[in-house]
Amino acid sequence: METQMINLSIPKQLLKILDLQAKKEIKTRSEVLRDAVRFYVNQQNILDQVFEFGDKTAKRMKIKEDDIEKIVDDYRKGK
Can you give the pTM of this predicted structure? Predict the structure, then answer.
């Protein structure tokens, strides 16, 4: 895998946390940061899929954004 070096500024306290995590996992800072970026991107992709599913379902059921709060409230009240 070809790599690209980047510069990253983070608060000192976060760097300490990063170093502790790297030590705990017996990894380098770079490895932990790569894992964190992969995790973040994966979570964002999952959220995108959830929202896309919600949008498609709302369109199919002809639910408008203004209706959602009432639907959720009714569901919570057991209606």
Answer: 0.73
- Note whether 68 and 59 are within 8 A (CB): no
Cα separation, 59 vs 70, in Å, equals 17
Distance CA 63, CA 68 (A): 7
Pairwise CA distance, residues 63 & 54, whole Å: 10
State pLDDT tens for residues 23-74: 999 999 999 999 999 999 999 999 999 999 999 998 999 988 888 888 888 8
Count the neighbouring beta carbons within 10 Å of the beta carbon of residue 15: 13
Locus of tokens 């992709």: 45
Please report, for the chain, the start and end positions of each structural domain, with discontinuous segments joined by +. Answer: 12-76
d(CA 8, CA 11): 10
Q: Which residue reads 């300490």 in tokens? A: 16
